[in-house]
Design a protein that fits this description.
Order of helices and strands: EHEHHEEEEHEEEHEEHEEHEHEEHEH
Distance between the termini: 26 Å
CATH class of the largest domain: Alpha Beta
Largest sheet: 9 strands, mixed
Shape: elongated
Strand content: 25-35%
Structural class: alpha/beta
Length: 421
């Protein structure tokens, strides 16, 4: 068992999929000396129900076996019923159940400096502390110094800019832009945006592949709790009727905000025509990004495009081996399926065997380019020029729960704590 690295407590608001797995991550990591989890309501009939929820998981199995192997014994026990105090894998965990509004939780009493809000209920950073439905800022009022939101910020009033104290960070991509004196509300984006950012960053960082003309992404995404087990009646005003269809036996087309969120993390994306969509499939976890990118390229001596399959795989392999993405972006030449990479700590696993490219030419009429000097065109044999372009397709697996998103959220949480003092 590793030594605890800080005396500060970590607060977790919400114990759904992300909240529970965030607890798993931190009891395994043993960076925080104690953890306080706010459920916001009663769970079952007693504290044993909370223990069962923490210990058992339909996707990853039992916590003790997941952390310590098949011969391990259960590692969640009640220490003090009166204080709702548990011990989880050797780490003291206090359970709170009375407050749902962040400002009423009282983190200060428990020595909590950082809160991970995993409820998905407070994604608008412009909401004031006294908003009747609660606000992410309520955690600051309750004593926290920094709040990490396990979802993308969504500002309801589109006329409102993002507040100066709010920022979107993805560990290994732009976490170094954190300003501890300015940023207090931190979005850790989403599982899909995290994986996508780690796929796009190496391409933009490389001279040969940085001239991206357009790009699109489709995520083949595992089921989530926002979907219906069986067909339900759509909510009033619902436009996406597929979301009310059964997740058990359907492939469901839906939307994703990953492209917009990516702009917050990698600003260069704003100049690229980037589209994103999502397809939900009936598996518990593990998703797949299919990234399509069109590059403006040059032809090398043998008329081969400067961007080709081997080049792209070399770029990804290099990013996986060294630099800020080492240990976060993984490169694999195996033929994988979801169960092969489930639980693996990686923002994304590049399926290198499926990377492929095609090169063609785009004919451009220079006279149609705004601002083009007519004299330049007159000195050419033709006003039409052919530009080599390469279309590339890359595939990346990501565990949208524990392995990918929750682990990187944990890395970001520790990083934020380390810059507090």
């Amino acid at each position: 068992m590793s030594k605890l690295e800080t005396e500060d407590a970590l607060g977790i608001n919400g114990a759904g999929r992300t909240g529970k797995l965030t607890l798993w991550h931190h009891v395994a990591r043993k960076y925080f000396s104690k953890i306080v989890v706010n459920f916001g309501r009663e769970v079952g009939t007693n504290l044993e129900a909370v223990c069962s929820l923490i210990e058992k998981d339909s996707t990853y199995g039992s916590l003790h076996r997941f952390l310590f192997g098949v011969n391990a014994e259960p590692c969640v026990k009640i220490v003090d019923r009166g204080k709702n105090l548990l011990e989880v894998a050797g780490v003291p965990v206090t359970i709170l159940q009375s407050a749902r509004n962040p400002k009423d939780i009282g983190w200060r009493k428990y020595g909590v400096r950082i809160v991970v809000d995993a409820t998905g209920a407070f994604n608008d950073p412009t909401r004031p502390v006294d908003h009747p439905q609660g606000s992410l800022r309520g955690h600051l009022e309750a004593g926290a110094e920094k709040v990490l939101n396990s979802a993308t910020f969504k500002i309801k009033d589109k006329s409102q800019p993002q507040p100066q104290d709010a920022v979107t960070l993805i560990y290994g991509v732009n976490h170094d832009v954190l300003n501890p004196t300015q940023h207090h509300l931190i979005s850790a984006a989403s599982c899909t945006t995290t994986a996508l950012a780690h796929m796009v960053k190496p391409l933009l960082d490389n001279l040969h592949s940085s001239k991206i003309m357009t790009a699109s992404m489709s995520t083949v995404h595992a089921a989530t709790n926002s979907q219906s087990v069986l067909d339900t009646v759509p909510k009033a005003g619902a436009r996406d009727l597929r979301r009310s269809r059964s997740v058990l036996n359907n492939i469901i087309l839906t939307s994703t905000g990953a492209a917009q969120a990516l702009e917050q993390v990698i600003p260069e994306i704003r100049s690229i025509g980037f589209m994103a969509d999502s397809v939900r499939v009936p598996i518990l976890t593990e998703s797949l990004i299919i990234l399509n990118v069109t590059f403006q390229t040059t032809l090398e001596g043998d008329d081969k495009s400067s961007v080709h399959r081997e080049k792209l795989n070399k770029i990804y392999a290099a990013a996986a081996a060294a630099g800020p993405q080492k240990g976060l972006l993984c490169y694999s030449e195996d033929q994988n399926v979801p169960s092969d990479v489930m639980g693996m700590k990686a923002a994304v696993v590049i399926e290198a065997a499926e990377t492929h490219t095609r090169t063609g030419f785009v004919s451009v009429d220079l006279a149609q380019i705004p601002g083009m000097d007519p004299e330049i065109i007159q000195h050419l044999d033709s006003g039409i020029v052919k530009i080599p372009v390469t279309h590339a397709k890359a595939f990346g697996w990501y565990d949208n729960e524990y392995g990918g998103y929750t682990n990187l959220l944990g890395d970001l949480t520790v990083h934020v704590h380390q810059v507090l003092d």
